[in-house]
Amino acid sequence: MKFLMMLGSPNLGMSQHPAELILEAPATQISQYTIKIYSFDEYFNRYKEKLHIAIRRQWIGQTSKSEHGRAISLAKKPDNLPWVFDDVVGIPRGGWRNNIDEADRKTVYFLMIEKKK
After folding, report:
1. What is the pTM of this model?
2. Closest-CA residue to 67 (of 80, 56, 83)
3. Is residue 74 a contact partner of residue 110, using CB atoms and an 8 Å limit?
4. What single-letter DSSP state applies at residue 62?
5. What are the pLDDT digits (tens) for 5-35?
6. DSSP-assigned letters across all residues of the chain
């Protein structure tokens, strides 16, 4: 978990600029009073009961630019191929792109760290 949160990523390996601290702030009403800064150990000890590793999916060919881009990026790495499937499972919320043939759509799975409320 520390590697994924602070040191690198499965796609890129070790970061040239690893994180030293974790900054946490609400999505709205950000101020000097609502920002919290933690070391990894502080964050982990505080939230370890709320942290989960979730499996998520995205699709090559979905309309979301960011999610489509992530799926393409993940699918390009040979080590990720066991997580890339030619059959399409599910339907993206936003639907499908018109410029990608149905035969070229793929389902891409990945792991994500989530903090439950």
Report:
1. 0.74
2. 56
3. yes
4. B
5. 999 987 778 999 999 999 999 989 899 999 9
6. -HIIIIIEETTTEE-SS--S-EEE--SSS--TTT-EEE-HHHHHHHHTTTEEEEEEEEEETBS-HHHHHHHHHHHHSGGGGGGEESS--S--TT-B-TTS-GGG-EEEEEEEEEE--
